[in-house]
Amino acid sequence: MSLTAQLAKHLRDVHFGGNWTSSNLKDNLANVTWQQATSQVHSLNTIATLVYHVNYYISAVLKVFQGAPLDASDKYSFDLPPIQSEKDWNNLRDKAFADAETFTLLIEHLPEHKLWENFADEKYGSYYRNIQGIIEHTHYHLGQIALVKKILLQEHQNKD
User: So which domain of life are we looking at (predicted)?
Assistant: First the structure.
C-alpha cells in the first residue's frame, strides 16, 4: 500500500472506524443530541465546538487540494456558528464527515512525490506534514470529545 493510501486510511479510520484505537468520530458522535453537543462542561470546549474545530482545518486543507489558496487562521478555528436545533447539529456532523471523506479520496489520488513538496507556502511545511498533522489533531480532539461525552452522560445519570 502506498504512503498516500496509508495516510488516507488513517484519516478515514479516525473518522469512520477501523483504527487500532477502536475509537472514531462517527461512533462517538452517533447518539449525541444537539443539547449535549452544545452543553458546557467545566471550562472545556463543547463537543460541537470541537467538531467544528477539527473540520475547520480539514476544510481549509481540502480547499487547497482542490486548487484554492489557503484561507484559514487559527483565530477563527473555534468560531462555531450557533447550534440551535438538531438540524444545525446534524448539518455540522454531516459536513465534517463529508469533508473528511472527500479529503481522504484526494489524499489517495495524490502522487507520492507531492507529499514532500511545500504545502501552499514553505512556512507550512510539506503536504505530508499537513496531512499527518491533521490526523494527529483529529485523534487529539477525538479524545477530548470522548471525555466530554462521558462527563455529560455521568452527570445525566447522577441527576436520575
Answer: Bacteria
Partners of 126 in beta bridges: 118
Residues 6+ apart with CB under 8 A from 21: 139
Whether 29 contacts 127, CB under 8 Å: no
User: pLDDT tens-digit profile of 107-151?
Assistant: 999 999 999 999 999 999 999 999 999 999 999 999 999 999 999
Domains of the chain: 3-159 (1.20.120.450)
Tell me the three cell numbers of residue 152.
Answer: 455529560
Beta bridge partners of 118: 126
Integer Cα distance of 106 and 66 in angstroms: 8
pTM of the full structure: 0.95
For residues 92 and 51, the answer to whether their CB atoms sit within 8 Å is: yes
Cell numbers linked to 49: 465546538
Per the CB < 8 A criterion, the answer to whether 3 and 115 are in contact is yes
d(CA 78, CA 101): 22
Alpha-carbon distance 50 to 141, whole Å? 7
Local structure of 53: helix, strand or coil = helix
